[in-house]
Write a structure and sequence with these properties.
It is a single chain. This protein is α+β, with helices and mostly antiparallel strands. The protein has six helices and four strands, in the order βαβαββαααα. The protein has one domain: Glutaredoxin, CATH 3.40.30. It has a four-stranded mixed beta sheet, covered by helices on one side.
């Protein structure tokens, strides 16, 4: 695996915060973040019935991980949390991690509300991460 594409729900505040967090993490492989509602996501992943409803991670060969497996794949990509991906996917913690992910995913709109609105860029007042 040489790169990953993470497809997230851009209408969800919690998903956008997770995207922003992932953008700050040093990774073992390049990670590209793609909004589920974008034309590129619909073109590349439009055949997935849960596009925009579940976290999706795909590698350059087309292998895809959905939901909890996608979350663990995101952790696996990071330098700091790779070891956690192994712990959480092992027999002891996998059932608990899966239940936790589904709980958060099912309630992500409710959990996202306390996170607050997007933070405006101090340079140009845009409400999304971007390069200057």
């Amino acid at each position: 695996m040489t790169s990953l594409t993470v497809v997230y729900d851009e209408s969800c505040q919690l998903c956008r915060r997770a995207r922003d967090w992932l953008l700050t993490q040093p990774c073992h492989v390049p990670v590209r973040l793609l909004a589920a509602g974008s034309p590129e996501a619909r073109l590349r992943f439009g055949n997935l019935p849960w596009l925009g409803q579940e976290l999706v991670v795909a590698d350059e060969k087309g292998q895809a991980w959905i939901g909890p497996a996608a979350f663990l794949t995101c952790l696996w990509a990071t330098r700091r949390y790779r070891s956690w991906s192994y712990r959480l996917s092992g027999p002891t913690f996998a059932p608990m991690a899966e239940r936790f992910f589904y709980l958060v995913s099912k309630n992500r709109k409710r959990f996202g509300a306390p996170v607050g609105a997007d933070v405006e860029c101090s340079w140009c007042e845009r409400k999304e991460p971007h390069a200057h």
